[in-house]
Known about the structure:
Largest interface: A-B, 74 and 79 residues
CATH architecture of the domain at 515-676 in chain B: Sandwich
Radius of gyration of chain A: 24 Å
Number of helices of chain B: 30
Oligomer: heterodimer
Number of helices of chain A: 12
Strand order of the largest sheet of chain B: 8-7-10-5-13-14
CATH topology of the domain at 515-676 in chain B: Jelly Rolls
CATH topology of chain A: Alkaline Phosphatase, subunit A
Number of strands of chain A: 19
Amino acid sequence: MSLPHGLPLDPSLPEPLARREFLRLLAGAGLATLSLGAPRLLGADDKAVVHPPAKADACILIWLAGGMAAPETFDPKRYAPYEKGLEYKRVLSTFPAIPTAVDGVRICQGLESIAQVMDRATLIRSAVQPDLGSILHSRHQFHWHTGYVPPQTVAAPHIGAWMARVLGPRNPVMPAFINIGQRLEGVGESEELKAFTTGGFFGGEYGPMNLPFPEDAAAAVRPPKGMDAGRFVNRDKEFRRLVDATPHRDLLSDHQHESMLRSMDNAYRLLSAKERAAFDLSLEPKEVQQEYDTSRFGRGCLLARRLVENGARFVEVTTEYVPFFQWDTHGKGHDMVAKMHKEIDRPIARLIRDLEARGLLDRTLVVIASEFSRDAMIEGRPGSKAGDQSFHKGSTIENPDHYGLHRHFTGGTSVVMFGGGVGKGKVYGATADERPLVAVKDPVSVEDMHATIFTAMGISPQTVFDVEGRPFYATIDGKGKPARIFG
Amino acid sequence: MRSHLVPLFLFALSPLGAAVDFDHEIVPLLRKHCGECHAGDKRKGSFSMNTRESLLEGGENGVVLVPSDAGRSKLLEVVASADPDVRMPPKGPGLTPAEQARLRAWIAEGAPWTTGFAFRQPAYEPPLKPRTPVLPPAQDDRVHPIDRLLDAWCKDKGLARPAPADDATFLRRVQLDLIGLLPTAAETEAFVADPSPDKRAVRVRALLARDVDYADHWMAFWNDLLRNDYAGTGYIDGGRKQVTGWLYASLLANKPYDAFARELIAPTAESEGFAKGIVWRGSVSAGARPELQFAQSVSQTFLGINMKCASCHDSFTDRWKLRDAYGLAAITSTRPLELVRCDIPTGKPAVAAWPFPELGQVDPAKPRAERLQQLAALMTHPDNGRFQRTVVNRLWHRLMGRGVVHPVDAMQTAPWNQDLLDALANRLVESKYDLKAVLAFIATSQAYQSQAETLVRGADDKGYVYRGPRAKRLTAEQFVDALWRLTSTVPAKIDAAVDRAPSGRTAVVWQARPIWSNDKAKGELPLVGETRVFRLRFPLAAMPAAARCVVACDNSYELFVNGRTASKGEDWQTPDALDLTSHLRAGDNQFLVVGRNAGKAPNAAGLWLQVTLVDAQGKETTLATGAAWEWTLPGATARGLPGANAVWRPVEVLPETPWAKGVGRLPEALGRLSGTGGPPARASLVKSDLLQRSLGRPNREQIVSMRPNELSTLEAIDLANGQAFADLLNRGAANLVRRPWRSPEEFVRWLYLSALCRPPSAAEQKVALEILGPRLAEQGVADLLWAVCMLPEFQTIR
Lengths: 487, 798
């Protein structure tokens, strides 16, 4: 295989050093146990937490940030086509429903490719979120990603960090938790995004590797610009010689020095491993690249697939949260959602088919989710005091810009899961057919959603860590209950 | 000892006809069925049967047991209930009928209890008031109180006391610990060579006297502890307020710690950000409301109490209760507060109170401002040893690598050496709450000046044993500052709104005057496109330790120092700040500026330039545009450099009038820039970036009192191939190769002395020279810089 960057896939690693074998052994051990003062896993002695058998080894979270309207995607309701003067109260969906590969299950027009793979999916239509008062996206995103409502008195870990901490990496050279597509600098609410895009109290070892631009992901595991592979490998080799030349031999046995060298070792291991090629989208056949290439998100789906193929544990790929863009439709909702359909439809369907073709789908849980749904009339939930945040305040639609679901709705939304032991061609829960479109059957709270995902991954929702002398559970108070969607 | 108060006639009423044996029948029964949730430190439903008192007190649902009254003892009801929602214990097979009968009999007997029995003895309760430890006699003339205590401790434990650290190790440690900066190579060599016996104590005092450096360094510590930052959640919508300016001024003035704390608890507009907390939009759980955040922050920062559990329910792990958290919250609350347990209102009003009524109490009837004053006074009450011990323990941790109480926020737990903790606290009080005095007290001890412990894995598994100071990871700020200084890449601007040169201090005085050519008739203005070349020649006795420059030209310029381009500027309204250290040399030097006028019609043109030179002794000299400069016409080369035969004439020094007003306000901007250019930028004063995050600077959403000591794999990846770090190394390398090194060996020696405070060994020198190659070039220098920065020896303070 020819590589565009002139970096051979397996540059010979440096000469084995005296401590090298020792380090290799250490690297395999649970890292946190080496770290003084790291949170302690509870239940080791007295009340052992029993983990369910894992149904999946890897998880891809497809995050449609900004509030994906369920009635415009996976839970179509009565279609009201655009007409001038149309009353908002008559608008439930602005897209007609289309059939899917599952008899009797319909989703929205625009998602034709996904419709054809719905026979591999369980469609949860009854996800609910608490009304956090004023609807700030990043607060709901924090809740969805950590299972805890912000603010928290300790830094709550992201769900990917839980997997990294409890399950560890699938492949020792691959970062366990990789986050694709979200810029954390220079976008609105970026400080709020950083607050949950983190290993939290587990520490940086379990935090995300952030790859905001999938097409640049290869650079994240490549030498810095201006440095060729030979120099990069050589620099590390020379560094190790310098370490070995230190006159303070006793320091090398120091725990802290050891742990620093081990991290350097782990880093260079990835940077010189064959798995590094997984980050490089240009290595995909042109046809495949084109199929995925609807957008940065589409390319992110391809990257997610390549990373999971090469042993990533948890990968999140997002359409990106930028206030008032993408799914965050406060105006021109219909047109924007039509654009979002185009961005997600082909890549998601292709991702599912690719995983299936590689025999990976059964052991990979793919979750499509968003922080909440949207509605044309209701902000928050029925009875919420949250203020109307749609741009257009009238009761009727006077031009196409007004046509769409422009308010945040937390009473019922859709989550789609593929693989990882979930039922195939199933629908779980339901929302009302008339406004308010609340979940009317089998509601799944954020805690229960986490319990469901954790259960699929073989993590007990009761898993608990001692943080500052307090128990901190994988789901709040250990009470999350998995939805009955498996098998 | 059994209680003998049981009336004998009850024996006859006992269903099984025999006296109940509390120790052998009831204790095992309660332990088996109830202990998991209601004994020791567990108090589910706020109910504990750890002691007879707590058992009789009952829980959130009222009384559980009434001695001698089985009928009113709810305990018997719940253990016998058939309703799974009511029955206790909720899990497992529950009590057998025989066990229930024994329990009933025991209650009927009056629930006798072995005097002093507790399922678990009450947790350690630290002393509140100050204590004066008795100092053991000095050993081997080691008279420092810390050494008298620790030497005796070591002797008692049969441990050798740690060996002394050498001068270079001490110097590196004390510089980084007290002001966050590495000593320069010259400073290290001078210190090691200095024969004076008291040089270490002298250096400690000298470092603490560098007040700007001290304030810069300790900003990072206090920002962590007060969760203050220059960007972060909450600032987006005014839900959070910085204390930056107040904090910096307090550190610069070494404000006594009691006054410091009072100003945070009963704040002014400048210091209220800490007490206000972070207000999130929308509804938050009761325990996260700003009033409760106040309770948590004040408890944690000043008392080392974790009030986070008790903000939601009575703590399961220590003695703090919901009413303690709400008591503090009610002090700051502007409205009546109701106790809310796990987001369910209890109907009970919160009463303003603080957790140590032994020292006095807040009057809930007083208005808020007065209540806060009272709390501030109680907190800093001379008898509040907890307040004193908490802060000295934090300082001990920063300097010695591990707290006397550890973790440092677990002040409710036992110290490994109470006398040591008290000696430190007393030093704080004796010095009138002078934190620098406590730092000096620690840093002048032999204990601090000992070799660091070589830490083995699991060192603390069986409890901590003092074996000398522990190595600390360089903070992100220390790492970045070190690199900036080593490579002359200190940025021009800081983000923190702080006054680093308040009035009354010697700041860099702005002396530069605008200059241009003197070939104009009176009233005639420079033409559009007019280009002039200016120069200043000056000798230097030695290469300066630092050279900071501010330059601007209306309209554009290129600056050459000793023949090499140092800077270009196109926008005259934005002056440039440069580090010229690596451009200057011992002997003759020359600044040469090609300046060019622009515009649509003839207009004023001018050049400003000022350089502050700092020599190895810290003495400052200023060079600035003025009458000493000369000008000539540009040469025929592309960049306008004049030839050797050019005729140089004195410049004209211009009035500032044309630039004093209008959009530019150039003199003002220049003055400001030179002000901040006075003390160079510090990493603690800029917003966090990818590099600093990779090095462990935290998001300050929560209070952070101890940063992780470990480098994570992801951080290591960033350090191995992160672009920002690579760019910084490249810029640094470019600066370094310009310095006049006599040989690669000289450079290696300088780098090791500067970064590690020791010369390289022969083996290290050999490897380093191989990395550099036969002559100093940017690539080799960048690679060696990287390798040295990655050494654990560099990344730790030992």
